[in-house]
Amino acid sequence: MFILFGSKQTKKELALGRELLCPRCNNVRRWPVMQYTTWFSVFFIPVIPIKNQYFEMCPICKAGKKLTRQQAQRWHA
Ligand SMILES: [Zn+2]
User: Fold this and answer.
1) Can you give the C-alpha Rg of the chain in angstroms?
2) Domain ranges in the chain?
3) pTM of the predicted model, to two decimals?
């Protein structure tokens, strides 16, 4: 039997986040808190989450700042 394994990454916005001055593009905006999940997939269907990463991301230039899970969960109410 032929089984196709792989991995797949999904992202979702957890919260609107806080207002920050971006060091890259110098705009003050609310940076959304993003969750990136890497999944183990079978036949392109995500089955098991392997790891989660959290970022605050500048909505203008997409500069990102990594967060710990605890930091991200403060926004996830
Ligand atoms: Zn920026």
Assistant:
1) 15
2) 12-75
3) 0.80
pLDDT digit string (tens) for 10-69? 999 999 999 999 999 999 999 999 999 999 999 989 999 999 999 999 999 999 999 999
C-alpha to C-alpha distance for 17 and 33, rounded to whole angstroms: 6
Strand ranges inside the chain, DSSP E: 5-15, 19-21, 28-30, 33-42, 45-57, 64-67
Tell me, in angstroms, the distance from the centre of ligand 1 to residue 28's CA. 8
29 Cα: distance to centroid of ligand 1 (angstroms)? 8
Cα of 23 from ligand 1 centre, angstroms: 7
Q: What spacing in Å lies between the alpha carbon of 63 and ligand 1's midpoint?
A: 5
